């Protein structure tokens, strides 16, 4: 989730940590001196461990199940014999779920947004201008108020000419109005088309024309992009824009789109309030959302999600996140056009939790857009729940470790003792993870670090890509919260596997969610078989309530990866390779598309190698490339600017720009040596360690089109952009 200036919000969080007087805080907590307190802090937990600590009996989290379709090893969730479809009877569609939840929690706060108090433009020394904002407290709307707004918007859409045969697209950053517009459309059974705000012009035109969208809903930033392509949009009739804070109307938005009807969200709501229309509620199998993915190849594909798909996944997640309810506050900042965020907010809706909206540029007190001396979103909201992608958590972890190293002395020693004690406890048992010792170390060491995320986080959901064990443990220890690592795809409505809150292992994605079955099917060519010992392995195939119906107007691709068995159940072939642990938990170990056979017959898994090499301090991002006509692999590396420049300064390397530094033979040699070391430590074979590398100075962001909104590598796009660089590496 890098911001538009290429700076991650996680690095800004670490700046907050660095400036939080943690050293003074720790000293105040040590009345017997740091060393004395450390001794006491170790002895007391050890005594408690002797009295209380014991390994929890192994729990069977996933169990075998007999299903139809292709032969393989299938598992279901160990707690549920039948697949979960709804959170409660009668809530079989998103529209029904919304209405019933709003009535149940009518007077409780639901959606929160911060109002702009002041704005100023700062000019940097290099001439660049940055907007800084002072944001106020969260202003809340209740469930009842949100329901009324969505109902009015639904009636307004009908007045604009919408019916079940028309489609509406939302092209905007995440915000409360996004959610309200979604629910309004679904109350009239109008299918929503979701599009990433970072999507390029060609992909945007393709998505809108392919789905024959008649109304586009967008924020003011995306309006400018949409206005520039209006002449290429074949069916568009209306544009509805979200008003920016402090503006009652925005007539300037209408320039350049005179052939279309342009309205603000407020105007459509008022139109509907003055012309109320009965809802046209959908059925379970009606298409709720066509979600365009920022896939790794070609133009994006539109995944068709039914109401039943979305509701089933939400219902399943509610069974594995402990204690969800009105006391919870969820921080919403990931793209709502991504299935992870859409499902997370649906879970909050069903649970009666409050949703506070933020952005990547305003999350912390030191975020790029936050005016100095004012508070970021996490400080004001103090969420109890949040979602993140692995790249974010990895950067947070690296940032904290770096700051601890910089502090040195007693602070470093105390942190290391505390971390090792907590690590031993977390890996020992559930009690060790969340018992009395946790409270002790939180007070002495980790309280200030936890304040980086508001100080109240009790559970984190991580999805979008595999999360490293080290980073998961970091969240467990420093943030004091369990991490639910999820596995799913847009094609399965995010619903596949989810690690349970009391599972103290790492590197796994848990058992199947109770809305689906997960089957491993042998892939003979790749050498992965369900008969493998000690763990069965194979391609991951998902079946059940969360499996979507296919790709919009793309029968060829749909038939390739979607299958319906003799019992009528739909299955999605993911292309991912997994293995089952003895307790029925799934681990992702490979991907079919990432496996390349080299010249001498060795197989190399690009994803596995990249994951190993990312542990180098010099690596900000990396793409390993293997050519079947060569016996070695190469790599494109986006270096960590801080680490590379620090090395250059210590080594006396002279350079005028980062680009010049990246081209220097000494820098290339240093980074390659680091890759070789971490590769050997990870037990990679010689042919898996890149023989040649190219350092690239510019970060890969969603805006550049080289990574997805979830920060996953878009391999084909990177290969195309740096085709010449790759050819030179093989020359």
UniProtKB/TrEMBL annotation:
Pfam annotation, one family = AMP-binding
List UniProt keywords, sorted A-Z: Membrane, Transmembrane, Transmembrane helix
UniProt GO cellular component terms: endoplasmic reticulum; membrane
Show the GO MF annotations. long-chain fatty acid-CoA ligase activity
Q: Which Gene3D superfamilies match?
A: N-terminal domain of ligase-like (3.40.50.12780)
Q: Where is the AMP-dependent synthetase/ligase domain?
A: 131-552
Parts forming coiled coils: none
The membrane-spanning stretches of this chain are: 32-53
State what protein this is by name: AMP-dependent synthetase/ligase domain-containing protein
